[in-house]
Amino acid sequence: MRLIRVAAAGLLLVSASVFAAEAAAPYTLLKGEWEQGGLLIGKAAPGSKLSFEGQTLKLSDDGRFVIGLDRDAKPEVELRITPPGGVAIVETHDVAKREWDVQALTGIEPKFVDPPAKVQKRIAAEQVIIKRARTRDTAIDDFATPFIWPAKGRISGVFGSQRVLNGKPKSPHYGVDVAVPVGTPLVAAAGGIVSLAEPDLYFTGGTVFIDHGHGLQSVMVHMSRLDVKVGDRIEQGQQVGLSGATGRVTGPHLHWGLYWFEQKVDAQKHTGPMPAN
Question: Which CATH superfamily is domain 2-94 in?
Answer without folding.
Answer: Immunoglobulins (2.60.40.10)
